[in-house]
Amino acid sequence: MYDMTAKTQSNRFTKLKASIADYMQRKDNILTGIEDEERISIQKKRIMERLGATDEQWNDYKWQLANRFICIDDFADLIGLSPEQAAYINEVGKTYRYAISPYYLSLISPDDSECPIRRQAVPSPEELNPDGDLDPMDEEGWSPIDLVTRRYPDRLIIKVTNVCGMYCRFCQRRRLIGESDKNMSWNQIKAAIDYVKENKEIRDVLITGGDAFMLSDSIIERLLSSLRKIDHVEIIRFGTRTPVTLPQRITENLVSILKKYHPVYVNTHFNSPREITKESKEACKRLANAGIPVGNQMVLLNGVNNDPYIVRKLNQSLLRIRVKPYYIFHPKTVKGTSHFWVRIEEGLEIMESLRGRTSGMAIPTYVVNGPGGLGKTPILPNYLMYIGAEKAVFRNWEGKQFVIDNKAR
Ligand SMILES: *Cc1c(COP(=O)(O)O)cnc(C)c1O
User: What is the reported pTM?
Assistant: First the structure.
């Protein structure tokens, strides 16, 4: 290494610069919500005027929930839809319900017919495509008791509600998001907790829904204190999209409850850099300041984030708000979501584009879900080119090959 000339060394750094030049060029055109705040604040003002809302109301999650937009005629003009487009959204709404918090609606760019926020929140006629299954993961078949799905030996999920701040158009549990919002009764939740108590292998309990933070603070406290009385429950996780769709929900009172029952983890669900706003940043900060590690579970979605540059920007921006990218899910073949499906190659290309080119911290695990409940299965570009009795041959992130000795000792 001492004979490396200054010239080869500077050549090295020139190459590193070249290998990121494409991203440097693209990233400033992929705006986060914080970077696009001016446009979002104009929308917010229009929506507040429409609803006659005060700042205090806007910042109150109960007001946000009670004022979710559920009828296209109330907001079509606000997001630049024509009366014809509004009419077919009405049609789709008869099959699949929709509800959009005023906050999340404010993130939609009315001049962009391809807006990734609009695509996630506003129904599309493509939802009537009959391809796919209602329950491709066979959650019903893996349910030992109401509300519980158990597919792994040491952990399970409890679905405590079917309510969300916004109903994602690609939802994997569309079958449960029925006619009306329903939080489960305490008796049902209690029975699920009893199941955990009776099964000593369960060391990790994941509370989800719907959106776990749609429960009231007092029920969340009751749930946490009951779970914490079970010795074999080591960690408690919440699955919630509220930091993204309803950040007002992350109140000081809520985090003061959560932090009494550590170790508590939260996994949230950002799909687009545009969802990173000053409000969602504040929500994640509150969680992190309460000692709660926050992870992100992105779903790979056609027309939202099936682009290596968008995912790189998203994951780097998440680290800046103290959220660690945890999973990228390959989209599931849920009926009514076929317009979001992508090919495996697209996910692999995204993983390839991240490794080496950005922090390992910004690289989640890409998983496909085995149909019928075969579970999360990781996929990775192939870096191991050959493995035998003597040696293993790899390629690195730049495609350079190297050999590692693999003899038995
Ligand atoms: C996703 C999931 C989990 C959690 O899986 P991790 O890989 O531990 O995050 C647990 N149970 C069910 C049924 C799941 O779908």
Answer: 0.96
